[in-house]
């Protein structure tokens, strides 16, 4: 029973780590939200997180990292993403299994080399898989359905969709449950994600981008991740959130205008700027700090 409990907790933490939360309750709420939109995606989320954890265990990776769910979130995104983009068939199921295994190996490389990959394994593997599948017509593309039609920019609608789109869901209900999942683990992070989504939507709106895409959260879900990742209780954390959202949103707009596959790359790119910046500022402060008597 104890092993089963640990396994379930590891799977749920892997799902929760999609939004950087090492919390069983976050993972459970995320899973409920995914199942609300799609039972198939919910099943794939559990399977992918499980495969990621099992791969790490077989490879004898650090037990604490496994329990923290660090090998589950990229795997979960790959599984749910492929089911989102394509109708399932034997090749898609094979791609999910192979992709989740590869993501686990890349995550271990990231941990050992201390490189902040975040969701980069998911981005690379999913993008390559999409290109190969489409090029060789290995699966029938899915046709996502819009569940809500909105005539004007509404902050709560945008935020709901933004949170929802992080894990390929399309309803406001799923997005609000995702928000609640982050909130029960880290209220500050959830609220910064909320603000980040609104700010990103405002940037896209000012840039005269499609109101439909803005309302659907397509320009804001990367900003949600930026807000969560850079959140904190210090005033400077708000500055980091602001900078990361600006970088992510403008790069998101650039990628979409050029017809590129965006996924969460704008978020990762912004983190590759912010993380070194935070380290640099920390070192400068340490050097200039005067010893107290």
Topology, element by element:
Elements lengths: L1 H15 L7 H14 L1 H20 L4 H5 L5 H13 L4 H24 L6 H16 L19 H11 L6 H14 L1 H20 L4 H5 L5 H9 L5 H23 L7 H24 L5
List keywords for this structure.
single chain; mainly alpha; Ammonium transporter fold; 2 domains
How does this model look, in words?
It is a single chain. This protein has 293 residues and is mainly alpha-helical. Helices cover 73% and strands 0% of the residues. The chain is globular.
First-to-last CA distance? 55 Å
Number of helices: 14
Class per helix and strand makeup? mainly alpha
Tell me about the largest β-sheet. none
User: From N to C, what is the helix and strand string?
Assistant: HHHHHHHHHHHHHH
Give the % helix.
over 70%
Brief characterization of the structure:
By secondary structure, the chain is mostly helical.
